[in-house]
Write a structure and sequence with these properties.
- By secondary structure, chain A is mainly α.
- In chain A, 60% of the residues lie in helices and 0% in strands.
- Helices cover 65% and strands 0% of the residues of chain B.
- Chain B is elongated.
- Chain B starts with a helix and ends with a helix.
- Classes of the chains: A mainly alpha, B mainly alpha.
- At the A-B interface, helix 1, helix 2 and helix 5 of A face helix 1, helix 2, helix 4, helix 5 and helix 8 of B.
- Bound molecules: zinc ion.
- The site of zinc ion has 5 residues of chain A, from helix 5.
Chain lengths: 77, 205
């Protein structure tokens, strides 16, 4: 049985959501702001909103963040 | 570090072969790590198959990286930029894998029965909840376009992953998300219009 809070979650559609495509070109910059301890929502507010709602993009974001954290320092030689 | 990657990944560079092999190796490791991270979605894939998928993801990401290397503007570290390509490959290959094994009932609109959202309601105490869900159910059936209904039912109610539905409907993640977003807004509007706003702002609007 869904109450108001669960319905609000199920129907989450927030003003300013940038959508999926907008995050693709900036995902690398977005995670690096996080790795530096900065708040990416200041520079990319629409994507910050989107990542809270879209599980597909959130999974990609988490994957890039994890890869950058774990394998970030690799050099070509 | 980023500049050295970009220089060495041009085929005329004397260290091209080594740099390309090194990038491929780290992309493969990143893909494998990501596949393990998303393991819950992949109960049917065994260890050696995961290695194969990681290899394919690294191969395809490598092609993308090399094709677009002149687009790299140095706004992030080169490796972070490259990992983006391999993570997108992991997503897309996992979606295809899931889609090929998905029971048709999960996305076929003919089968998309609306769950009884008022099930389990306790009499009296939750009458308002029951009425609110009745309004929602009607709005799903009557106010959404067929496409919005199909997308909303599959993703929001039946938990079909967005990329899997995009494959099923021969669409893409962004377009499906837009359908879902529009459906949610419309449903919120219907609830508020019927006297069941979900937020204070909707109550005041
Ligand atoms: Zn998205």
């Amino acid at each position: 049985m869904m109450d108001v809070r669960e319905l609000d979650e199920l129907l989450r559609a927030q003003e300013g959501d940038a959508g999926c495509d907008a995050g693709v070109p900036i995902m690398d910059q977005y995670v690096e702001l996080e790795l530096r301890g900065e708040d990416p929502s200041e520079r990319f507010p629409g994507t910050a909103i989107h990542l809270r709602v879209c599980p597909g993009c959130r999974a990609d974001h988490d994957g890039v963040l994890e890869a950058a954290r774990r394998f970030g320092g690799v050099e070509p030689d | 570090m980023s500049r050295r990657w970009v220089e060495q990944l041009h085929s005329s560079h004397p260290r091209y072969e080594q740099a390309a092999a090194r990038l491929h190796d780290v992309l493969r490791r990143a893909a494998l790590h990501e596949l393990h991270r998303r393991r819950a979605l992949l109960p049917s894939l065994a260890g050696p198959e995961l290695d194969d998928v990681a290899q394919q993801c690294a191969h395809d990401a490598m092609l993308n990286v090399l094709a677009r290397i002149d687009d790299f503007q140095g706004l992030s570290r080169f490796t972070t930029w490259a990992y983006k390509f391999v993570i997108f490959e992991v997503s897309s290959k996992l979606a295809r894998h899931t889609w090929q094994r998905l029971p048709p009932s999960r996305t076929d609109p003919e089968w998309a029965e609306l769950p009884d959202m008022a099930a389990g309601v306790r009499p009296g105490e939750q009458a308002e909840n029951r009425e609110r869900l009745g309004v929602l159910r009607n709005a799903i059936e009557q106010d959404l376009t067929p496409r919005q209904r199909e997308v909303f039912v599959a993703i929001a109610l039946n938990d079909v992953p967005i990329d899997v539905l995009a494959l099923q409907l021969d669409s893409n993640r962004n377009a499906i998300y837009k359908n879902l977003f529009d459906a949610r807004r419309k449903l919120r509007g219907c609830l508020a219009g019927a006297g069941y706003p979900l937020t204070d702002e909707e109550a005041q609007a």
